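Batch manifest, entry 17 of 40.
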Amino acid sequence: MGRDPGEAADDARGARCRADAVSRTPAAPNRNALWARALVDGLARRGVSHACVGSGSRSAPLVEALAADDRFTLHPHVDERSAAFFALGVGAASGRPAAVVTTSGTAAANLFPAVVEASQSEVPFLALTADRPAALRGTDANQTIDQRDLFGRYTRRSIDLALPEPTPAGLARLGAAVEAAWRAAVGSPAGPAHLNVQFAKPLEPVRVPGDVPSGLEPRLPGPATPGDTPGTPPPDAGAELATLLHGARRPLIVCGPNQRSEVGRASLALAARAHAPLVADPLSGARFGSGAARWTMGGADLSLRADDVAAALRPDLVVRVGRAPTSAAVCRYLERHADAPQFVLDATHRWRDHLATSARRLTGDPVETLERAGAADCGEADEAWLGRWRATDRAARLAVEPSLAEAWFEGAVANAMAEGLPEGTPWFIGNSMPIRDVDAFARATDRPLRPLGLRGASGIDGNVSAALGAAAASGRPAAALMGDLTLLHDAGALLADRPPGISLHLVVIQNRGGGIFHMLPIREHDPPFTPYVVMPQSVDLGAVAAAAGIPHRLVSSAAELREAVKAPGPESEGRGLRLTEACIEREHNWQQRTAAIENAKEAARRAI
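Output type: structure tokens
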């Protein structure tokens, strides 16, 4: 059987032109270079400044264009999965999409987990997958898969670009595709967009006589637009919210995880204006910062675990902002009081109420809605209502203070890190138990921190890479808290894919396996609990750190950890990576955590 004619022509054309390699000039040497440079210019003009690049040949035109453009910071990655989560971290920290560039085949498929998380977490993200010519699809051509709509329904937009067309009309069509992908990535809701970019050989920037018409520049026509922003609310959205608050005596604001810190600040401002208690998720933007100590009920996850407390704190209005809270106790509270009017503020048309408790959705940009409500006459809540929330919150917090100060368990790790980090630190909080422990045990404080996390699909994969990406986008020393399995799942990000010039302090809870499962009923069934659910591991994290060439330290108390996270990094101005390991015995952790929670529940009962 002969070779596919498309692939044969592809190779022949590349062979004819390879000897004509020339140095980079303003004029594009061939249609691939023209196409890639125009695409890259279009992204740069829309504010994309980070690109994560995987190894490969088919993507060479895109990589060459990115490397030649000083508007981009490039992050090379051996592992495309790690590259994608790194880009996810950039998007979460900056609110702007990073581009991920892959070659064809399974390299592109490796982006799928991060694309799913970007979709669920509503983080802007751009996948640029290089591809072989469409004529080779469905044949035995090497490294060729069908990359059209590769990520299914998880992308906001997926566009399969035809082979480069070096004409004004071709560039106009490319410009329309770039604009559509950009708008999809940064629109409402934000999320992943996919451009599948076909290239035939030559892939190198070699001169192909007559390939690019004279005077045709690698620039897309039309102005670069910033893309859609969250929808402006109808003129009466803020006024309607103010009216609802004015008519309520027992209002409650619940701010769940979201990717915009200004949502949390606006929620805090409205809580202060309406004298309403605020229950704020660690990833809401309202847990750490000015006003949080007074208005945010940081002990809600603890106090609402007591059924009688949750029953007694009966609201007559609930205003919900962001995703559903991390706290199961808060979610149960919302379900318990489903008969109270619950309004969800949402800029999207996605279904955000899996609890099925909301009476209505107020559509529009939540920040503008909250600010307009605060500027109007929204009244003030009943003083006794706010007082009961504050009393139970304070009682629960005081009840766990001895455990946090004296015991060594995962809740103490979370609280010590929150207390010790320098103000303004970007803080990536891993999934599984770390985010839950921060929610339960880290008190609300006026000290500004910037927690970041990925609570869409909530996997433990790619968390190290995402933390590195967040640190890169933040441009300042950052920190991360995660479990041992989370670190091991993505250890390659430290060993092979660690970009230079990033300052990140990784704090890892070492409990030799999946400690979260000790909180679930399955723990009573062993086997199979230990070998197949907990999955014990005995990896020496010090050896992992040594292999990666980063400093490693063991801590065994809350005081020691607080000092460790306050300290500067090993290099000048705190630059570099370091790993601090907090060793916790699983059974001891479960006992200490259970005791602390029971103490908090009992104290809240007495306070109510």
